[in-house]
Amino acid sequence: MTKHILLPLALTLAMASLLSACGADPLEEKEIALARKAATEGVLTTTQHYDFTQWLETPDGYSLPTIGKGDTPTATYWASASNQGYTFLAQGKSDFPVTPLLIDGRAQGASIRTVKGAYFFGIGSNVVAGSLYTGAVDKRKLISSSLESSLFGQPYTSGVPEWLEFRYQYKSGETVIQGQNRRVELPATDKGSVSIVLYEITDDASYLNGLTLQSDPRIVAKGYAELEATPEGQWRELELRVAPVDAARCARIDFAARRYRLALVFASSYRGAEFIGALGSELRLQDVRIKDRVKSSN
Q1: Distance (Å, rounded) from C-alpha 243 to C-alpha 119?
Q2: What is the homologous superfamily of the domain 44-293 according to CATH?
Q3: Which of 38, 55, 137, 277 is most buried by its number of CB atoms within 10 A?
């Protein structure tokens, strides 16, 4: 928090305390409340921190990061449709796309990789791009409608997200392929990707998915970046701006009257939703933080 924010905040709160001690009348109390709101609303602060040091093993044999608050092996804050899909495409194998990043024998991050899958009779893909995201998996759609199987987003009430910060390493695999052997123009080099999307929850409580993540009309603010290879062994830090999609709608955010979800999506191949990626591409992820603008309930 910068000094130019701290100083007016301290002065305003000091004035409010002084007026309150003097027995302010109802009009003065209202002015105090408005002053406090003006002083605190809009302050930038870190509200979410994910370090990926704690993981839970699921009934399907793979592990996912846990935030500890009510997470169970069958219901975790983080999800991975690629891990779940891999259990169908490569039965008996354990080379899951998303695994703990082990350093000195301890989990100190997440490893998100593009791995070999299987394609037969028009089902599946020979390349499975790793993805780790906040949300859930609709197992019923993994085979028939894989892009709709990823249910993006968890309830969010802490404030208006403005920055996503994290540390990462990225290595691209050697050869980009189309896992379903279609005739498409392939990129020369693979890249990772990250998306952050804040959206309103409507009456039907439906989620954004692989088809709607970037285009749904309920989106309030979002950010997206593609990640290129980093020097061997070096970590890089990224600050990603979360920009309003509609300034008027963003200004009307009201956590008392409306409900919101925040989707964080990290992928090892940025065209993985098209079954395009390079085997061996890997995104290593640490220390994810969200900085919010504190917004009072109206």
Answers
A1: 38
A2: BT2081, beta-jelly-roll domain (2.60.120.890)
A3: 277
Q: What is the pLDDT of residue 38?
A: 46
Strand partners, 169: 284
Q: Please report, for the chain, the start and end positions of each structural domain, with discontinuous segments joined by +.
A: 1-40, 44-293
What is the DSSP secondary-structure string of the chain?
--HHHHHHHHHHHHHHHHHHHTT--HHHHHHHHHHHHHHHTT-EEEEEEE----EEE-TTS-EEE--SSS-BTTB-SEE-HHHHHHHHHTTT----SEEEEEETTEEEEEEEE-EEEEEETTEEEEEE--EEEEEEE-GGGTTT-GGGSEEE-EE--S-EEEEEEEEEEEE--S-EEETT----PPPSS--EEEEEEEEE--TT-PPB-TTTTTT-TTEEEEEEEEE----TT--EEEEEE-EESSHHHHHT--TTT--EEEEEEEESSTTGGGTEEETT-EEEEEEEEEEEE-----
**Global pTM exceeds 0.85:** no
Q: Nearest-CA neighbor of 171 among 232, 121, 94, 215?
A: 232
pLDDT tens across 113-129, in order? Answer: 999 887 776 677 778 99
Mean pLDDT is lowest, of 28-42, 83-97, 277-291, for 28-42
Amino acid at site 207: Y
Are 258 and 218 contacting, i.e. CB atoms less than 8 angstroms apart? no
| Residue 239: C-alpha distances to residues 126, 157, 200, 227 (Å) | 33, 21, 24, 12
Rounded CA gap, 29 and 23, in Å? Answer: 9
Answer with the residue of higher pLDDT: 17 or 117: 117
Residues β-bridged to residue 188: none
